[in-house]
Amino acid sequence: MQYYSSPLNRVYSASQMLALFGINVETTDITILNYQGFYPVTTSPNPYDTYLYITTPTYNIVGTQAIQEWVATPLPLSEAKSGGSWQLLVQGNQNIESASASFGFSTDLLTAVSSQDSLLRPARYQQALDEMTAISDQLNDQLDLIDAATTVDEINNIVNPPTGILFTGRGISGLLDLNPSYYTEFNSVSMTEAETELYIPGTSTTLSYGQFVPGQFDSPGNCFNPGDYLVQIREVATGMVITEFECPLATVVNVDVAF
User: Which of 108, 134, 158 is the last residue of a domain?
Assistant: First the structure.
């Protein structure tokens, strides 16, 4: 446990409290601690990517506690580009390793096989090679977006895309019509819900946030082809795909789709 001093704007451990101030926090009542300007800290995880931002904890007094919060300052753009690119390269390498292992091959083996003439290459390797190509193509697209970024927040959107829950489905007004859908959870320090859109690749349909109902996505009619219910959540500014999913059938009430 840590203790925040509001007069000094510093945080101390229990041992420091005893050594510096003669206060045994195990035997001192919370009201006495507060009277002396000390508050037990309720910590919170740092939501910012420290390869992209300089972060500083702050403390907000709520009742008898000091609630830890975080303030971020973007790193210089060139540094953030280097940090973001490095993270993507590490993740890309991990994805390649995982993909090759899932097929029972090593990356060294697949690298050797990929150099063979495609007409002579044994067919058993092709699916694994296609998966590795898809991963490397996505990585290249992401690195291109980082190269073109003009702000650190743009880089963060690429390296740390939003997560959350979309309450969605199809079928209330027709099997090919998207139900009114909205986020019940959206987590990002650099992108807002309004900066996202839904895209249906099968019909090249884009559904804007709040286009028909504030805070929701909705389609004015059918937006799917029969049997093809793929939906992408994209960033409006770049078209970057945040996630994609098969829209669930929900003829009475929507379903939570986590991303």
Answer: 158
